[in-house]
Structures are given as C-alpha cells and as structure tokens.
Amino acid sequence: MAKAKSSKPKRQWVCSACAAVSSQWFGQCPDCRAWNTLEEQIEAPVGDGRVVLSQRPAAPIPVTRADEIDEGPRRSCGIGEVDRVLGGGLVPGSVVLVGGPPGIGKSTLLLQVSAALARSVGPVLYASGEESVAQVAGRATRLEATHERLLLLAETVVESVLSAARGLRPSPAVLVIDSIQTIYSEAHQGLPGNVTQIRAVSTQLVSYAKSAGVPVIVVGHVTKDGQLAGPKLLEHMVDAVVAFEGDEDRSTRLLRATKNRFGSTQELGVFEMTGQGLRPIDNPSEALLAERPAAAPGSCVTASLEGSRPLLLEVQALLAQSMGGSPRRNCVGVDPSRLAMLMAVLDRHGDMFVLDQDVFMNVAGGLRLFEPASDLAVLMAVASSHMRRPLPPELVAVGEIGLTGEIRQATRIELRLAEAARLGFRRALVAKRRDQRKTTGVPEGLELCEVSNVREALEVGLGR
Ligand code: TYD
Ligand code: MG
User: Fold this and answer.
1) To pair with 227 at 20 to 30 A between CA atoms, which of 24, 68, 273, 444?
2) pTM, to two decimals
C-alpha cells in the first residue's frame, strides 16, 4: 500500500515581515533581509488543502519600556504627510481604512502612495472595483505615478484579489482596495456594501494582512455628514482609520487619523489638489494664511497645535443684528456650544452686548478648532466684528477662557510662539502666568502682550 505522503506534517519557516517561506531557519530572511523574523509553522493537511495547525507560541515579552516593543519596521509611503498621519509609515500586516466623500481625492492619493511604494519597496497591487484598468492607468500616467511594479487589477471579488496578491513574489509592499463598497465575497450572499459582505470582505483582508505581513489600505466612501457609508463594524476591524477631507470649492485637503492602533490620532497632513494630483504642503501655516484679508474686522489669527505641529489659523466672525426670533449661530470649524459660552463671557465680563446678534463663524481653509487654546482668538474675532474694528494685522492670540472671564495659558506655548514669529507675527496676545514667572522661550522679534482677563484682552487688542 502506498504510504500517504501528504499526511505527514510539514515544517516550514515564515518571515513575519515579508511572509516568504523557507524550508529551514535562517537568522536573516533570504527574501527581505530582515533579521530574526523567521517563525516556525507546522502545516498538516485537512481535506485537500493545507492548513496551518500550529505555530510556535511567541515568547512572552516583559514590559519594561514601551518604546522597546516595536511593531516591526514601518514602510515609508514616500509621502511625508501620509507617513506623519500614520504615525511614521505603514506597519506591515496592518489594515488602514481611508475614508472620505466621493471626489475628494482618495483614489488619487492612494495611486500616488502606490507608485511611491512600488518605486522604493516592491510590487504593489492596486485593486479597483470602481474603475477599469484603462481609467486607473490613464490617471496614473497623468500623475506620473507609473511603475512596472505598480500592478493594477479591476476586480470586484475579494477572493480573486487575494489570490492575485498571494501569487505575487515577493509579496506586495501594499495591497490597495478601492473601494470596500464595490468589493464582495463570492462565498457570501448579498450586495457589496451590506453588513454580511463588509464583514466577510474585511475578515479576509485582515487575515491576509496578518498572515502575509502585508499592509492593506482600504478605501471607504463617507456620506455627506461624515459617516462611513455602510456598517460601522468596518472601523472596529481595521487598525487605523484615516479621514480625508476638504472643502469642495477649495483645493486644500486634510488627512487625519481618527483611530490608530500604532500611533497618535492628532497628526494632520495637509495637501493641495493640483492638476498633477495631490501636492503635500510643507508649510501649511503660510498656505492657510495666504488669502487672509488685510485689516478686516472680524478676523483673528491663532496658533493651534495639531499633534506635534503648530499651525496658524485664521478665525473669522461676522455679527449682524438679528431680525427677530432667536439669533442665528452658524459655525463652521468652531464648536457652537463653545461659541455660546464665549459670547456669554463677552457679554458679562467684556460688557459687550452681543447676545442678540446673529453670528457666523468660519475657520479659513476648512480646518476645525478643537482646542480651548483657540478661545481667545474666537472671542477677539467676535468682538472685532461687533466693533467693526480690525485687530492689528501682526497680532496672534492664544489662550483658554474660563467662565469668570479669566485667560489661561495654552499648553506648549513656546512651539506656538515660534511658529507665529517664523511667519512674521510681531505681537502675541497670551495669558499672564499666574506664578509670576516670565514666559520663557519667547522668540526674538515677538512682543508678548500678557493679559489676565477678557477686559484686558479687549483693551490691548482693540483699544476698548
Ligand atoms: P478622486 O481621487 O477620483 O476622488 P475619490 O477617489 O475620493 O472619489 O479625485 C476626484 C477629483 O480630483 C476629480 O474631481 C478630479 C480631481 N483631480 C484633480 O484635480 N487633479 C488630479 O490630478 C486628479 C487625478 C484628480
Ligand atoms: Mg475613487
């Protein structure tokens, strides 16, 4: 009787960085040259397919210092602004969801990222369920995002995409799925984008990413109100969710992580949509202030912190006598309840009777002010519009305002002041330190105007 050869378990070593398979252990992966990444796997047959039965359990790691535990080498996307938002590049084996409204530039961005990775790392598989290969290739040509290792696939069946990815040697530097709403699993019922399909497709993508050590980027369309079209469960299944946003009638595009298992969610990437695709903006403060009107009432600049990066933003306010009924509060980029609080403070502690006014607020460039440190700029913009008097053009305002009208120092003030000075601001309206010590790290050429409360701020900024 012939010996059942296939019943013997097979030992092999799989690289955790590039998923290359070797028949023996090496200290260095013969494929991607990473050190100490080969892990033993024992495969045994089940039915007619080979299935991994056991994997040597990973040795427990004592937690001493957080930075000693590393998820492995990150892959630079070739675009600094994208790397920054991801926390320093793509983590092998991670799944990243890029969400944004249709037409914002998701496919453009990912094609540029794909081309950069194809150039610097290895093959990239870009699977589009939305456009034909000719359409994607046409765009890639226009963007000069072509490379022989950038492989396009027009495919809507996830099993086919994954079998193409598994067939690539070396394994892909990244797998891009454009989009989750157009791809489905043959093994499951229902239209692409429904709960069953999204769960089935993402399970397969996550399992491929983890087993092959390949980063997977998935595009997801969001609806007008910023919700991901389709079930929320997708956001729970992926490692990072990155939102791509911007104003339809402006060219500025913002990328920020709303979830990140491998990094912070505060970093912001800024781009401009041009005829040649997305251009990273290295100097966003300058770009955001470029269209600022000179000496206009209702405009105030603040130095905000987006993650580790200071950013100068222009807050605009327009007040108009309300035509009866309850006054309107129209806020873009400013929290309406924070504005209500600041208006009440201005009324009570600044003796400026603004509560019966319609108020329109805007932050230039489509950015949002989340930080309490922007309170002072919002309040000054409102007061300036009400008085129809412009603030000095070289003034920047930073500080948190409390309910008694007191002004408090913002965190990391020295970073903010340095950015203001770099862009030519000469005066900074900031909180007076309570401990009577001098604010240190004030850049040369920047005059500090320290104030303790709203009344003093109005006096210094608007001569009131
Ligand atoms: P796209 O990446 O297709 O958006 P999404 O995938 O998020 O739906 O980009 C759509 C818009 O971007 C489209 O209106 C054209 C514009 N665009 C440019 O302005 N410049 C370019 O180089 C490219 C490729 C697109
Ligand atoms: Mg698209």
Assistant:
1) 273
2) 0.75
